[in-house]
From TrEMBL, chain A:
Lineage start: Bacteria, Bacillati, Actinomycetota, Actinomycetes, Propionibacteriales
A Gene Ontology term for the protein's cellular component: plasma membrane
Localisation: Cell membrane
Parts of the chain that traverse the membrane: 7-30, 109-134, 146-169, 189-209, 247-273, 293-319
Membrane protein topology class: Multi-pass membrane protein
Protein name in UniProt: ABC transporter permease
Automatic annotation (TrEMBL), chain B:
Pfam families per the UniProt record, alphabetical: ABC_tran, oligo_HPY
Compartments reported by the entry: Cell membrane
Organism from which the protein derives: Desertihabitans brevis
GO molecular function, one term: ATP hydrolysis activity
SUPFAM superfamilies: P-loop containing nucleoside triphosphate hydrolases
Protein name as annotated: ABC transporter ATP-binding protein
Keyword list, A-Z: ATP-binding, Cell membrane, Membrane, Nucleotide-binding, Transport
GO BP, sorted A to Z: peptide transport
Length: 327, 272
């Protein structure tokens, strides 16, 4: 087990290295000169050279990449004497703030969005899918599946705009969302996040409902479910113990991946609702070509996905006894 | 004396969009308490559907008609709640493929003890566990006290079928239905399982309905035989009589199809 974890962690470092290399290459090759960008309108060639020197932009590719990596691990001191403690992800070209602080600042918003949406979509998706499976072929089942199809095919910015128009503009039952701290009052906090949660969870709930339905229908056809009935177990126990547990195991593992992905920022939802999370940071940094920030959000997303992957593998071993003993 | 199982004019049909298909037609048989009946026939002859109809475990879309009486009680009109009390407690079933019939997510101990508790609402977890170990010992699973916490995939095919039998025994049924219990097993293991079933019948006096396509199995274990083809009963009677003087051509063909060790070798082209 210890060996297994060691191998997985090593794999994680390798993947993160490759992701950062890849991102670095893209910017090195494609991006316009950041020094010009930082310098602004009233710029002299001397000033541009100075900025290049300070940031190390005049160095060859591998030197710059090496400086970036060692900065993440050990911190970095720039040519003008500015010290950036580890983990140093550089400074934003736009506002000169340390990128690490920006991430730390924005992560709680993305986490709040992800957790709230996850609770909603798990409840709605699993319950809806289970009911659909148990009432397979009925009008309830068909209705739920049509709704789920809608959830999958309607882009969530469309849903977001429609909801905003109806609930905020027309009915005025909800405020326009903005990032509010829980400390500002739970009621206000809840009202602010409700719409993003609903919009984001609708897509996932639809996917999970379809997945749960298909899995439950499959397991209900399994021989061991027939055995459970042949023993004379009550119907609810047959479903809860013998059908639901095997049907939900893959759902649980997919959930870990989806949730991890969302911690890296819900780009569209955060942008549409103006929530200052990681997703909006990513969108803004891309439009402004703010290389250090793009680099950081990419790495952060990759980090969460990889951790999610490891969690999935551990979870599978824990949930499925066949995997447990094979390891 | 009332028959243990009395099936009259049982018909099982599937309703499909393209019409109605009868997979079992007007099957009637009787089983005396403690007696054994072999139902034989090729795949698709309706023998499994007959047994599932008795348990009210037919797949979705299937309907049954006719009468099924267990020691005088009509089962076809029993409300689901009452039928649940019959399953496992009065009629228990052993299936063909023990690996797919055991839930891979739970220990065999849990699966046996839940069969024990299903009909003993006051039984505690601890009692049920002890009963599971005892049931495993009764079916001769070595190191039962330790094996009780293992998962189905950690058992061999023969041991898994023993687990299924232990599970079936937990409800102390009057009637055991075994649907091809040895088909998925090696020949040597088949023999052990058949011996075990015979031993259990001796000890408990339970009646047995054995469904199989293997005539050797039937001749070894059954008092009476029912031969089915395409959903119809083509021949029935005492095992001795059916095997020595088969009347229906299908039975004769079935008997001829049994390979014998002194048969001449026949190559793929029929050349000798």
């Amino acid at each position: 087990m210890l060996r297994y974890m060691g191998v997985r962690l090593l794999g994680m470092v390798v993947v993160l290295f490759l992701v950062s290399l890849f991102t670095f290459v893209i910017f090195f090759v494609l991006s316009p000169d950041p020094a010009v960008q930082i310098c602004g309108k009233n710029c002299t060639p001397e000033r541009i050279d100075q900025i290049r020197g300070t940031l190390g932009l005049d160095q060859p590719f591998w030197t710059q990449f090496g400086q970036f990596l060692s900065g993440v691990v050990a911190g970095r001191t720039y040519a003008d004497g500015q010290v950036c403690p580890a983990p140093c992800l550089g400074y934003s070209f736009q506002n000169s703030l340390p990128v690490w602080d920006m991430l730390v600042d924005r992560l709680p918003v993305s986490a709040t969005v992800a957790v709230g949406a996850a609770v909603l979509w798990l409840l709605a998706g699993v319950a809806g899918g289970l009911l659909s499976a148990l009432k397979e072929g009925t009008w309830w089942d068909r209705g739920a599946m049509v709704l789920a199809l809608g959830g999958i095919s309607v882009p969530n910015y469309v849903l977001a705009l429609v909801l905003q128009y109806v609930l905020v503009v027309q009915l005025q039952v909800l405020p326009f969302p903005q990032a509010v701290d829980f400390a500002d009052g739970p009621g206000q906090w809840f009202a602010n996040y409700l719409m993003p949660w609903v919009v984001l969870s609708f897509l996932y709930a639809s996917l999970y409902a379809r997945l749960t339905r298909a899995n439950v229908i499959d397991t209900l056809g399994e021989n061991y479910v027939r055995t459970a009935r042949a023993k004379g177990l009550p119907g609810w126990l047959v479903i809860r113990r013998h059908a639901l547990r095997p049907a939900l195991t893959p759902v649980a593992t997919i959930f870990a991946m989806d949730f991890a992905g969302l911690l890296g920022g819900a780009l569209i939802t955060e942008t549409v609702f103006g929530l200052n999370g990681i997703g909006k940071l990513a969108a803004d940094s891309i439009t402004q070509n703010d290389q250090p920030v793009i680099m950081a959000v990419t790495l952060l997303a990759a980090f969460f996905v990889i951790v999610g992957n490891i969690v999935v593998d551990l979870l599978y071993g824990w949930l499925d006894p066949r995997v447990r003993t094979a390891r | 004396m009332t028959a243990l199982l009395d099936v009259r004019d049982l018909t099982v049909a599937f309703e499909t969009p393209r019409g109605r298909t009868e997979v079992v037609r007007d099957v009637s048989f009787e089983l005396a308490p403690g007696a054994s009946l072999g139902i034989v026939g090729e795949s698709g002859s309706g023998k499994s559907m007959t047994s599932l109809a008795v348990m009210d475990l037919l797949p979705p879309g299937a309907t049954r008609r006719g009468s099924i009486r267990l020691a005088g009680t009509e089962l076809t009109t029993l409300p689901p709640r009452e039928m649940r009390k019959v399953r496992g407690a009065r009629v228990a079933m052993i299936f063909q493929d023990p690996l797919s019939c055991l839930n891979p997510y739970y220990t065999v101990g849990l699966q046996i003890s839940e069969a024990y508790r299903a009909h003993r609402p006051r039984a505690t977890r601890r009692e049920a566990r002890r009963a599971a170990v005892e049931a495993m010992e009764r079916v001769h699973i070595p190191h039962a006290a330790e094996r009780v916490d293992h998962y189905p995939h950690q058992f061999s095919g023969g041991m898994r079928q023993r687990v299924m039998i232990a599970m079936a025994l937990s409800g102390e049924p009057e009637l055991l239905i075994a649907d091809e219990p040895t088909t998925a097993l090696d020949v040597t293991v088949q023999k052990q399982i058949l011996d075990l079933i015979a031993e259990i019948r001796r000890d408990t006096g339970a009646g047995l309905v054995m469904i199989t396509h293997d005539l050797a199995v039937v001749s070894e274990i059954a008092d009476d035989v029912l031969v089915m083809q395409h959903g119809d009963v083509v021949e029935q009677g005492g095992a001795e009589q059916v095997f020595s003087r088969p009347r229906h051509p299908y039975t004769r063909r079935l008997l001829e199809a049994v390979p014998r060790i002194d048969d001449p070798l026949v190559g793929p082209g029929g050349a000798r």
